[in-house]
Amino acid sequence: MTLILGFSPCPNDTFIFDALVNKKIDTEGIDFDVVLEDVETLNQWTLQDKLDITKLSFPALFQSLDNYVLLNAGSALGKGVGPLLISNKKQEMMNGEVNRSIIALPGRNTTANLLFSFAYPEALNKKFMLFSVIEDAVVNEETDLGVIIHENRFTYQQKGLHKVMDLGEYWEEKMKTPIPLGGIAISQSVKRSVALKVNELIRKSLEYSFANYPVITNYVKQHSQTMSEEVMRQHIDLYVNNYSLDLGKEGKKAIETLYQVFLASKNETTTGEAVLFL
After folding, report:
1. What Rg value do the Cα atoms of the chain yield, rounded?
2. Which of 150, 162, 223, 235 is flagged as catalytic?
3. 39-51 per-position pLDDT tens digit
């Protein structure tokens, strides 16, 4: 059996899936056709029901619950891991100033966009672009502000940029839960028994990587060519943790809380109980 698997080339994803896709563990008769893309492309493909298994932002999952469910392994949640709102000016900004600004964001369906809207519901002048060009957009004053994710958390200060708000910290203060960023979803067209096996394989793949850490494998390096090994490790340390092995009650509660915030942002309510998890 072959399943199409999509995830990002970022170190947290390649670290999780290295042992799986490179057959360092027994995949128990399942082969994976791997596609690496940025997360907003994967989000768009989720809305089109394109992949069997995919990394995705939670808002994309919330819009695709007729077709996908979340696996228990592979997610990115945590504390102190949220996106940052940045500026090229070192000064405190009031909400009104942010509301009037042009803000670069890494995709309409990203959790970063939802967390930004949670903090600044009246800031509507948004410009969506690839996450990796947002720093330069702010440096070059193509936008007034930017919301950065991934490794850019570790590089923005080197470009003379300044933090306006830690959007994850704001979420934690208000909601008292970890920050849910992204997860691994599987198509409901895949048999449940196979989905459960895939979930277990992802967990085993991550356990294999943890057992060999802090070694950075060639697979992680080849997809992170512009990063130093130090930044790769910072990235892995920030985004891969016990929630990535198993969401647990706390992780699931955080995702359910984000789902309610998502519905509120759309002025929607649930009709019956939505099935989020496998």
Report:
1. 18
2. 150
3. 999 999 999 999 9
